[in-house]
Amino acid sequence: MFVNLTNGSKTLEEGRDLSLYCDATGSPDPNVTWTKVGDNHPVESEWLLNFQNINRDQSGDYICSANNTCGKVSSNVTSIDVQCKRTS
Prior knowledge:
Layout: E1 2-5, E2 10-13, E3 18-25, E4 31-36, E5 42-44, E6 48-51, E7 60-67, E8 73-83
Parallel strand pairs: 2-8
Antiparallel strand pairs: 1-3, 3-6, 4-5, 4-7, 7-8
């Protein structure tokens, strides 16, 4: 099983939109789950993790985990750093 995060770590201003893609391959096809480090429940159970109007509370490390019916598990971590929106 192989998990690749195509977007890598991100730094962005709050209020922006962000999509992270988890490219997981394996046989049989894996199920993908996104989890925020420190939380016990999945954030998303899809290949794509979307944030609309992101805020600073959503900063942190996110794990993309893939597993299949053969019991194989693989994961990768990416970091999101949401910074205060500048005012002019």
